[in-house]
Amino acid sequence: MKIHIKNMVCPRCVMAVRAILENIGLHPIHIGLGEVELEENDISEIKSQLKQELQSIGFDLLDDKNSRTIEKIKNLITDLIQTKNNRLEITLSDHLSMESNRDYSQLSNLFSEVEGITIEKYYILQKIEKVKELLIYDELSLSEIAFQLNYSSVAYLSNQFKKVTGMTPSHFKNLKENKRKALDKI
Prior knowledge:
Elements: E1 2-6, H1 11-23, E2 28-32, E3 35-38, H2 47-56, E4 60-62, H3 65-82, H4 92-100, H5 104-115, H6 119-137, H7 142-148, H8 154-165, H9 169-174
Antiparallel strand pairs: 1-3, 1-4, 2-3
């Protein structure tokens, strides 16, 4: 049986969900971002307990198809930026269409209608959060960050960063308090 879980954005999320599932006596076969395959065929008796346990640490069960589709889009974008350094051989729209087996215009309309922003805007916000993270780590220069995240130039990264945050990357880097957002809050 497959179940879908909202707000899983990192390997630690996978570990946390695994612990919850095993604690309540379920047997996961595979756990990925937003999706879990269980040995069990029916969890109706413990579904409310599972939902409550998941919600206690910021996750939630996704029951309807549209919610699962939106969560899949978010997870694909997060995975692309966080683990694949924004490297694609095809366009983002083609990538999302192929991975979800749906037409991009359907995905785009659904995402915009439910989330209130476009997929492209969400993608840019995720990229900027990754830039903030890398700036805070202070291990890479701005040109190395631009290269790592597949920006065409440092100027393009800087312009996009300023448009989203209202400040330049160097100004952000010099701030004492970090203004990063949790990935599930974007």
